[in-house]
Specification:
- The protein has helices spanning 12-20, 35-39, 55-60, 79-84, 97-112, 115-136, 155-166, 202-208, 226-231, 249-258, 277-280, 296-315; strands at 3-6, 24-26, 44-47, 66-69, 88-91, 147-151, 170-174, 180-187, 191-198, 211-214, 236-240, 261-266, 285-287.
- It is of the alpha/beta class and 316 residues long.
- The chain has 2 domains: 3-95 and 296-315, Rossmann fold, CATH 3.40.50; 97-287, 3-Layer(aba) Sandwich (Rossmann fold).
- Helix 1 runs parallel beside helix 12 and helix 5 packs across helix 7 (155-166).
- The two termini are 15 Å apart.
- It binds nicotinamide-adenine-dinucleotide (NAD).
- Residues 71-73, 93, 96, 100, 151-157, 174-177, 215-217, 219, 223, 241-243, 267-268, 290, 292-293 line the site of nicotinamide-adenine-dinucleotide.
C-alpha cells in the first residue's frame, strides 16, 4: 500500500482521488525537525512552499520514492539531488496561472483608483473627512487603452497578457526567450479569438509601459532597480506577483516617494514573512501576503493535478 504524507495539506479533491486509487494519505503537518523519523513510514511526500526537502532529509529516507510540489516554484526542494538519487519530483506548474493573473489585476485596479489608501483612511477619517478624501482620490485612471508591460512571458505572464488584452489594453512583453505567437482569448467558454503577440526588448517594455507586471523566477539580482525606474514613464504602476528579490525594494520606495512611480502592488517580498515596515506602511503600495495561488479553484486544480501525477508515477 502506497503511503503519502501531504505535509502542507492537499485539497480534498486531490486527497479523494488518491484514496479512490487505493493510496493512504495523511494530512497532519509534521514539523521540519521531525520529518526524518516520520518519513520512514511513507513512500511519498507532498509539499507547498512551507516544508523543505533538502539533501540531508533525502539522504536519511532512502525509502522515499516521490516528492510532489503543489504549485510552481521548487525553491524549497533540492530537485536535482533528489532526481540523482532516483527520487521522482513532480509539480503542477500551470494550475495557478489564472489565479495569479487575476491577483495582478486586483492590484492594478486597486492602484489605479487608490483603493489601498482609501481602505486604510476611510475607516479612520471617512466620517469627518469624506469630501477631502473624495478630492484626494479624484484623479484615478482607466486601464483600457493603456500599455501593460509583462516581464517574463511564461505561463503566468501570458495569462496576465490575455487578461490585459480582454480589457482592451495594449500588451507588450519581454522574455529572455523571445516569443512570437498567439494568445487565445476565450469568452463564454465557446467563443475563442486568437490575438497575435510577440515580445519586444527589455528597454522597450521599461520605456513604453504605463503598467509593468513581473513574472520571472527568483533572480539573484533585481530585475527592476533605480536605473530601470529612472527610464520608466512618469506615473507608471508596478505589480510584483512573482518572487521576492526581483525588485530592489529601496529603489521602489524612492521612486514612489519621488512620484516617478504612481503605485505598486506587491504579493511577494524580499524578506518574507517579515517585509520591510517602509513597504508595509507605504500609502502607495497595495499589499497581499503571497496569496497568488490561494484561490479555491487553483487549490482544487493543484490538488487534482498532483494526485494524477502521483497515481501515474506509482501505477506505471
Ligand atoms: P514560467 O517558467 O512559465 O515563466 C517564467 C518566464 O520568465 C520564462 O518564460 C522565462 O524564460 C522568463 N525569464 C526568466 N528569467 C528572466 C529574466 N531575467 N528576464 C525576463 N524573462 C525571464 O513560470 P510561471 O509559472 O509563469 O511563474 C512565474 C513566476 O511566478 C515564478 O517566479 C513563480 O514562482 C511565481 N509564482 C508566484 C505565485 C504567487 O503566489 N504570487 C504563484 C505561482 C507562481
Amino acid at each position: 500500500m502506497i503511503k503519502i504524507l501531504a505535509n502542507d495539506g492537499i485539497d480534498p479533491v486531490g486527497k479523494a482521488l488518491l484514496e479512490q486509487a487505493g493510496f493512504v494519505v495523511d494530512t497532519e503537518t509534521v514539523p521540519q525537525d521531525k520529518l526524518v523519523e516520520a518519513l520512514k513510514n511513507y513512500d511519498a511526500i507532498t509539499v507547498r512552499s512551507a516544508t523543505k526537502v533538502r539533501k540531508e532529509l533525502i539522504d536519511q529516507v532512502p525509502n522515499l520514492k516521490l516528492i510532489g510540489r503543489g504549485g510552481v516554484g521548487m525553491d524549497n526542494i533540492d530537485v536535482e539531488y533528489a532526481r540523482e538519487k532516483g527520487v521522482a519530483v513532480v509539480n503542477t506548474p500551470a494550475a495557478s496561472s489564472l489565479s495569479v493573473a487575476e491577483l495582478v489585476f486586483a492590484h492594478l485596479f486597486t492602484g489605479a483608483r487608490f483603493l489601498q489608501d482609501a481602505n486604510r483612511k476611510m475607516p479612520v477619517d471617512g466620517d469627518t473627512q469624506f469630501n477631502t478624501l473624495k478630492k484626494a482620490y479624484a484623479k484615478g485612471i482607466e486601464l483600457k487603452g493603456k500599455t501593460l508591460g509583462v516581464i517574463g512571458f511564461g505561463r503566468i505572464g501570458r495569462e496576465t497578457a490575455a487578461m490585459g488584452l480582454r480589457l482592451g489594453m495594449n500588451v507588450i512583453g519581454y522574455d529572455l526567450y523571445p516569443f512570437t505567437g498567439h494568445i487565445s482569448l476565450t469568452f463564454q467558454d465557446d467563443i475563442s479569438v486568437d490575438i497575435p503577440v510577440k515580445t519586444v526588448s527589455f528597454e522597450e517594455v521599461i520605456a513604453e509601459s504605463d503598467f509593468i507586471s513581473l513574472h520571472t523566477p527568483f533572480a539573484a539580482e533585481p530585475i527592476l532597480g533605480a536605473k530601470e525606474f529612472d527610464q520608466m514613464k512618469p506615473g507608471v504602476g508596478i505589480v510584483n506577483c512573482s518572487r521576492g528579490g526581483t525588485i530592489d525594494e529601496q529603489a521602489l520606495i524612492n521612486a514612489l516617494d519621488s512620484g516617478k512611480v504612481a503605485f505598486a502592488g506587491l504579493d511577494v517580498f524580499d524578506n518574507e514573512p517579515t517585509p520591510l515596515a517602509a513597504i508595509l506602511q507605504h500609502p502607495k503600495i497595495s499589499l497581499t501576503p503571497h496569496i497568488g495561488a490561494s484561490t479555491n479553484e487553483a487549490q482544487e486544480r493543484i490538488g487534482s493535478e498532483l494526485a494524477s501525477l502521483i497515481i501515474a508515477h506509482f501505477t506505471k
